[in-house]
Amino acid sequence: MQIPYTKKTLDNGLDVIVHEDHQLPMVAVNLWYHVGSKNERPGRTGFAHLFEHLMFEGSAHHDSGYFEPLQRAGALLNGSTNTDRTNYWEVVPTGALDLALWMESDRMGHLLPALTEEKFINQRDVVLNERRQNYENRPYGLAGVALSAALFPPDHPYHWITIGDPDDLRAATLEDVRRFFETYYHPGNASLTLAGDIETVRALDLAEEYFGDIPRGPAVSPVSHGRPTMAGASLLLEDRVELPRLYLSWHSPAMFETGDAALDLAADVLAHGKTSRLYERLVYERRVATDVSAYQHSREMSGVFQVACTASAGVALPVLEQAVTEALAALADEGPTSDELERSEVQTEAQFVYRLQTVGGFGGKSDQLNAYNVFRKDPGFFDEDLARYRAVTPAQMADAVRRWIVGTARVALSVVPHGQRHLALPEAAEVAVS
Amino acid sequence: MRRVDRSRLPVPGPPGAFTFPRIERARLSNGLEVRAIAHRSVPVAAMVLLVPGGSSADTPDRAGLASLVADLLDEGSRGRSALEVSDRIARLGGDLDVEVGPDAIVVSLTVLDRFLPDGLALVHEICTVPNLAGADFERVRRLRIERLRQLRDHPSALADRAFAQVLYQSHPYAQPGHGTAASLGAVTVEEVRACHARTFQPGGATLVVASNRTVAEMLAGAEAAFGAWRGDPSIDPLQRDRGREAAPRSPAVRLGVVSRPGAAQSELRLGQVAASRATPDYHALVLLNTVLGGQFVSRLNMNLREDKGYTYGVRTGFDLRRGEGPFVLQTSVGTEVTVPALREAIREVQDIRGARPVTADELALARSSVALGYPRGFETVQQVARSAAQLALHELPDSYFEEFVPRLEAVTLDDIAAVAARHLDPARMATVVVGDIDKVGAPLADLGLGEPVTVVPPI
After folding, report:
1. Which fold does the domain A233-430 belong to in CATH?
2. Is the CB of residue A395 less than 8 Å away from at least one CB of chain B?
3. What are the distances in angstroms from CA A265 to CA A251, A287, A334, B112, B445?
4. pLDDT tens-digit series, residues A50-80
5. What is the pLDDT of residues A157-200, one digit of tens each?
6. Where are the domains of chain B?
7. DSSP 8-class letter at B254
8. B93 Cβ under 8 Å from any chain A Cβ
9. CB proximity B377 to A under 8 Å
10. Residue A70 C-alpha, separation from nearest chain B C-alpha, in angstroms
11. CA-based nearest distance B247→chain A, Å
12. B 391-420 residues with CB below 8 A of A?
């Protein structure tokens, strides 16, 4: 199983990847810039994402909205920012490929002349609205802010979440925008994938034609921070919620590092589906929780392994904490059963196959080719990626849980309804987030 | 190499040819309608079983009954426990989704293609012989009630429930699909079993299968799995069509508020009872909506987000159903701009049917945007199977997909003006605000919608 592709690097450093799939008369254009909130500095958090918004406000030769010509042409388009990268994509009817490439290359090569204070202020307000809507006005919405801040020291780029701090967003200036663009938005820091109804030779020619004359920018030095350390913490957050929720988080392997796949599968064994250990014990049998989740969130510099459980009404969080600790210890001691491992192998295979179903959009084939290219320098890593999961043995899973999770420093966060601190872990200390 | 002309945007070439999926039909001897679609794809198979009824079939004091039945389908069947069923799904690489809509329950299972026969057998089993055991019922109902409790913290859920209540009042579409703590608390396991028996009948139901395989193989698979399903002919599927009862002509209140002191944003809804999916105005409404609030460059989003910065986004939709569905505008805005944002929103809705009708260019943009993007909806087997199931629900012809774009092409500016006048009527509209009402600054009464009335969302 794989995604066949051709890769070529232009003279200015732009990686171009082409994948042919002629099922629909559509082409997916997918462009990654290897910059995310990890490249921000304290005092200007949230900037990479705010910048992404400005990429949709026009460029030198098309100084009006980015959406209009593309939506008129029948395209679907969007972009997103996380800690490690920023991506932009369009899925266009085959006949509109030139238009999409013209637009993408114009904003890569010629964004700044179109930038104004007015656009900047407007998009900053939009982002402040986005933050209020998706974080502040959402139950448990600020848990991620508290967890990131406790897991990583203040000078670590994962200390803050991508949406940033409202005061930092208000402090950002046009000059910050210029500097950010010049530092990170150029061909040498980008990867372009064209996937869909397009001949490979023509796709490579078009990429050269539209992007070839954009100057190579300054080399971007990778952000590095050594392996983060922490002493652990137990935090308390009172929130507008009905039911208390416990979050337990640990440092874990970075993306593709040894132990990453094993912990990913361990998360499945713990909390994916009704037959998972925590669901079966806490939700199905004892009924002390209403939902459980676990995941290995692997990122470039460091991963985070997280287990979260929402308590049933009237249940205090120490009950859940004890059960999770026991389940982790059991997994570290005995590993998964052959049944559990077999089941998660089929599910992993299915997830990989399902990922091959769409050419464009978030998580489609074009996005995956770029992800493997940016993070592995190998667009063809799909097969090897699947092989990582297939190779996990019960002993390796037990080993990863032992090495990274059991008995190591962790951050516990008790989120409880206002006025119900007695439901939190007993030692939890109140944390301020906004 | 040719140099890029940056003095103008490239003009897109003509759209590529596209053949819409061909739907093959069969009807099993038990009355089950089967649709099979051969679709080039990766080795994944999708199956969808649609049974009419849905949440509008619930009586008001048992709102959420259909949804409880749906929840219990994968909680054990043919004597096997919920854990065993879950294990089987996982071993097919399966992704099961049970959705309770206002007019139907839709059970969708996607599996690795090699497991298609097992997948069909599984859907058949969970839908026709679920255990519906007392202990599982109690456990699942309790989880449901706790989830409802959590919804009280979700401004969008509060807004949706308050809005449906204000618009539909005693009509079945007023009922929250997942019920309320009170209505779920009143349900008995006997009622669940009776609801299952009258809902899951082969007569009136449709099974859609889409995969890489041949149509003959898929139809044979459907017969093998579902052929032995026996229905009760005394049950009339039309009794499950309560959504078609006449809907109220005007809302219960024009301006409803749900107070959430300390809320970071105001969650807004604005709209009215509009039309049924069977309306001949359908294609014109799609285009009208696209111009008004259906995509990023719509009038509303360009005004409220891109010009004013009041919101992260605003959108509108005609949620057309078997009965008369609503037109809804939804957004979340900063507390202090609640009144100006609502004023702009109301003005945009009024203007498009009067002072500033849709222009020729706006119509062209909306039409090309929807028509040229249309093939995108037929990429995966799940998309294809779900779309075909929707045709069955709304009794639309198998030729519907290929006729869609020609019908869009036929819509004129006069048609748009006519449907705007017909289906957007400020006198029939309701507005709901969920937020920190004491902090909204300018008084809500200034909107000219009368004094705000407190609404209690049914939860």
Report:
1. Cytochrome Bc1 Complex; Chain A, domain 1 (3.30.830)
2. no
3. 16, 24, 15, 19, 56
4. 999 999 999 999 999 999 999 999 999 999 9
5. 999 999 999 999 999 999 999 999 999 999 999 999 999 999 99
6. 24-243, 255-454
7. S
8. yes
9. no
10. 8
11. 32
12. none
The predicted complex's ipTM stands at: 0.95
The verdict on A39 touching B (C-beta cutoff 8 Å) is no
Task: Domain B24-243: give its CATH superfamily.
Answer: Metalloenzyme, LuxS/M16 peptidase-like (3.30.830.10)
Question: Domain boundaries in chain A?
Answer: 6-211, 233-430
- Overall CATH class of domain B255-454: alpha beta
Average pLDDT, 10 consecutive residues per value, chain B (459 residues)? 88 93 96 96 95 95 97 96 95 96 98 96 98 97 95 96 98 96 97 96 96 97 97 78 95 97 96 98 98 98 97 98 98 96 97 97 98 97 97 96 97 98 96 96 90 95
Please name the member of A61, A280, A347 whose beta carbon is closest to the beta carbon of B90. A347
Tell me if B24-243 shares its fold with B255-454. Answer: yes
Residue B361: closest C-alpha in chain A: A72
Spatial distance between the Cα atoms of A320 and B438, rounded to a whole number of angstroms: 38
* Contact between chains at A273 and B333 (C-beta distance less than 8 A): no
- Tell me the CATH class for A6-211: alpha beta
CB contact under 8 A, B379 and A69: no
In sign, the C-alpha dihedral spanning A150, A154, A155, A161 is positive
Coil/strand/helix, residue B231 = coil
